[in-house]
Amino acid sequence: MAARPGDPRPTATRVNGARPPVPGPGASRWRGVNGPPLPRIRSTVRDGVLSVSLAGEFDHYSCAPLHVLLDGAAALGARLLVLDAAEVDFCDSALLDVLERWSRSGRHWELAAASRSVRLLLGLWARVRAPLPPAVSGPPRPARRPGRRATRPPGRRVPSAADRGWRPGP
């Protein structure tokens, strides 16, 4: 039955005596059932460039649709990913896995905008991936002669835990 002009708007009914959910003040996005905001992914592919806009929270489970999207765009010939992550509330290493998987095949990605959590994650990732400086602890050791095996001097043995007084418990 169609609503006529002037009819009252339908209201949510009570289920098992409970009140219908009412969004609180300032609720700007739809939340999942008793959970965090659902992730939103918007994308376009044009001239080999995939533009992706992300919003919400991205973890292992919510990155699965992003994996599928990137695989489909790669099949269409996209070689560059432009990522807008300004509205990402939370992200973890699953987003890094998505980006690494994209760049493994010689494709490139760049960040158009990023939220604080994305910047922190990418900053940590850059620090971990950077090569460590060589440890300097005295003069460099001479190179071993080829064919020789490193051995301990005769008569010396490495002390064990039992030598230091350790005994197994009862």
Describe this structure in words.
This protein has 170 residues and is of the alpha/beta class. It has 3 helices and 4 strands; from the N terminus they run ββαβαβα. Strands 1-2-3-4 form a 4-stranded mixed β-sheet, with helices on one face. Helix 2 (93-103) links the parallel strand 3 (80-91) and strand 4 (108-114). The chain is elongated and about 100 Å long. 13% of the residues are buried. The model is unreliable at 10-15 and 25-30 (pLDDT under 50).
Task: Draw up the topology in text.
Elements: E1 40-46, E2 49-58, H1 64-75, E3 80-91, H2 93-103, E4 108-114, H3 116-129
Parallel strand pairs: 2-3, 3-4
Antiparallel strand pairs: 1-2
Describe the structure concisely.
The chain is α/β, with parallel strands linked by helices. It has helices spanning 64-75, 93-103, 116-129, and strands at 40-46, 49-58, 80-91, 108-114. A 4-stranded mixed sheet has the order 1-2-3-4, covered by helices on one side.
Give short descriptive properties of this protein.
170 residues; alpha/beta; four-stranded mixed β-sheet; 3 helices
From the alpha-carbon coordinates, what is the Rg to the nearest angstrom?
29 Å
SSE string, helices as H and strands as E? EEHEHEH
Helix content: 10-25%
Share of β-strand residues: 15-25%
Shape: elongated
* Cα end-to-end separation: 81 Å
Average per-residue pLDDT, rounded, comes to 76
Number of strand elements: 4
The order of strands across the largest sheet is 1-2-3-4
What is the count of helical runs?
Answer: 3
Structural class: alpha/beta
Low-confidence segments, ≥5 residues, pLDDT <50? 10-15, 25-30
How is the main sheet built? 4 strands, mixed
